Amino acid sequence: MNKIYDQLLSPKIKFQSERLILAIAISSYLLHLVLILLTACGVLQIESKFFKSPIAAIYTPFSFILVYEVFLLIFFLPKSISYYIGKQYEIITLIVIRRIFKDIANLELSSEWFQIKSDLQFTYDVLTSLILFILIYFFYQKIVKRDDPDMERSGDKDIRIRKFINLKKAIATLLVPVLIVLAVYTFFNWANAAISDHENGTAAFANINKIFFDEFFTILIIVDVLLLLASFFYSDKFHKIIRNSGFVISTILIKISFSVDGIVNNALIIGAVLFGFLILLIHNMFEKNAELSEG
Asked: CA 187, CA 45: separation in Å to the nearest integer?
């Protein structure tokens, strides 16, 4: 399994994937712009807000950037649980920002801004992205010096810890084909609904932000629970159990956010990231107290 892991998730593969996805993102952006131009000239007849304004084309490359973030999430899974959770927060933040690019081209600039649903959602998303950006900054700041240091430094000395790391590598390796299949399946399902008839197509475009990521976070919940249960084999420290349990709750809140719209969606996303940050913050307090006691 380690050989397969090295082939799929090595630093070299990470670099190559980054270059490939960047090239695809640029190409898709230019293609989207061309389609918008052809639609504006009447060469193509596409009844969708995605092809009305060049601003909406930014949505397309962001979708591929999100694909790369998913790969980074899998890449960091065996290395650090906290960084793995941080990548989940980055993904949901990018989804919110991508949603801003989707809706910004359709804003109705008027004095009744707070009475127009789409304009209100745009306002919620802008504020949410700022709050998430700040929370993620503080989240990473708290794990730079303190994220399972024993697991990284003592891995060669403790068989239980090595087994846990190998388990995370095995999960990460299995996630690669699972997510590829999921991505292809959800895309073709969405494409089929979008072109089958007008009613289904309208619904498909309305729910485009949920494509893949709704199911993706369901898989992450399963992975998080597996990691939580496996962590009992290498550590029985209360604060680590609560930290890992809190991360599961945070992921579940993100998953639930896909089932609601409006300000409730934004509140759930912010609540999920804030909860994860506070859990990590309190966990670090326990670690610091333990160090002082040992000293």
From this structure: 22
Report the half-sphere exposure of 35 (CA within 13 A, side-chain side).
Answer: 18
Is residue 259 helix, strand or coil?
A: coil
- Tokens (6 digits) for 69: 């973030």
pLDDT tens for the chain, 295 residues: list them.
667 877 778 788 888 888 888 898 899 889 988 988 888 887 777 666 667 778 778 878 888 888 888 888 888 888 888 889 999 999 999 999 988 887 776 676 766 666 777 778 888 999 999 999 999 999 999 885 544 444 444 444 467 777 878 888 888 889 888 888 888 887 777 666 655 554 554 455 555 666 788 888 899 999 999 888 888 777 777 888 899 999 999 999 999 998 888 899 999 999 999 999 999 999 998 888 877 766 5
Nearest-angstrom CA–CA distance, 116 and 107: 9
Which of 18, 14, 2, 20 shows the shortest CA–CA distance to 173?
2
Match 């998953």 to its residue by tokens: 255
Give CA–CA dist 11/5, Å, rounded.
11
202 vs 38, 50, 101, 119, CA distance in Å? 21, 12, 18, 20
**What own/partner pairs with CB < 8 Å and gap ≥ 24 does 284-287 have?**
284/142, 284/146, 286/237, 286/238, 286/239, 287/146, 287/239
Q: How far is the C-alpha of 278 from the C-alpha of 195, rounded, in Å? A: 44
- Classify each residue of 105-117 as buried b or exposed e, where b means 16 or more C-beta atoms within 10 Å of its C-beta: beeeeeeeeeeee
Q: How far is CA 108 from the centre of its chain?
A: 29
User: How crowded is residue 77: how many other Cβ atoms within 10 Å of its Cβ?
Assistant: 23
* Integer Cα distance of 220 and 293 in angstroms: 36
Q: Is 8:176 a contact under the CB 8 Å cutoff?
A: yes
Query: Both tokens of residue 43?
Result: 């060469």
- Residue with the two structure tokens 């790391």: 165
